[in-house]
Amino acid sequence: MGQGPVTDEQVQAFADDGVVCLRGAFGPDWIEPLRRGMDRALAGPSERRRIWDADDRGGTTTYDNQCWLHVPEYRDFAEHSPMAEIAGRLLGASAVNFFFDAVFVRTAGVRFRTPFHQDEPYWSVEGFDTCSAWMPLVPVARESALEFVRGSHRWDQRYRQENFGVLTGDDRDQVRYGVADDGRVPFPDIEGDRDAYEILGWDMEPGDVTVFNARIIHGGSGNLAPDRELKVFNTQWLGDDVRVAFRPEGMDPDHREVMEAAGLGHGDRITSDLYPELWRREPAPA
Ligand SMILES: O=C(O)CCC(=O)C(=O)O
User: Tens digit of pLDDT for each residue in 66-122?
Assistant: First the structure.
């Protein structure tokens, strides 16, 4: 038996595969407010909102992040839902801090797929003990869900990052990632050679959550049937070994300015009102 909201088998699957899909982790009392929050947030987006893709039929893929700062339903989910404990248990952490939320919203029939990538090498933090929680607020079929290269969170190879700013074309988003001779190799063409990789993904219902290590290679979503939209709420969580990292090769999203304003410097343990600690393991009984 596991402890709290995850089983030992789920903890093991997360450690080995880098990803686990938890069925029915959240009831309508969490999903309904998130849907309301998302509707409001889409109507009044943050300055970070971007359209990643717009197709010739008027379909769009919208991305926004750190909206918990102005969307009370997102804040309530981060602060009070079982997600912080799920993250802490899966990570085997003594405590977890909230990093940020993100939304990925595709209108009906959008084919655009997010390119395969890793998350943590882009972030303004570094560590193995991280996870992202990908929660569709509508049903999603396997062929339209996020996909994962099994076990790739433990690969030793470090990859040169791709500039996701090309998706928006917006000047503010361009990051010219360093090409210093630091052992990084170009990112593999997973989509072009799918049979060479073990790719995991699940069809999902609202209330299910796919939790993944932020070093795992993942991508996809999209590829939607003409009558299906996709609305995903995502939260990111940080465990014990994570430290602030201002990466000279570039960051996306780049939190350096807000971290420094919050008194955080390179190498510091994450903590501040912007990245609150939201779960701590009970000490073992004496
Ligand atoms: O849902 C998507 O299209 C992308 C999701 C993703 O890359 C992430 O959650 O890190």
Answer: 999 999 999 999 999 999 999 999 999 999 999 999 999 999 999 999 999 999 999
CB 77 within 8 A of CB 33: yes
Q: Rounded to the nearest 5°, which phi and psi values hold at 136?
A: -70, 135
Closest CA to 242 of 131, 153, 127, 154: 127
Residues 87, 239 contacting (CB under 8 angstroms): yes
Q: pLDDT tens, 115-168?
A: 999 999 999 999 999 999 999 999 999 999 999 999 999 999 999 888 888 888
**Residue 29 belongs to a domain with what CATH number?**
2.60.120.620
Does residue 108 belong to any structural domain of this protein? yes
DSSP letter at 80 equals H
**Nearest atom, ligand 1, residue 104 CA:** 1
Q: Residue 75's domain spans which residues?
A: 8-278
Which residue puts its alpha carbon closest to atom 6 of ligand 1? 219
Name the residue of 164, 218, 237 to mutate for ligand 1: max ligand atoms within 8 A of Cβ.
218
187 belongs to a structural domain: yes
61: in domain: yes
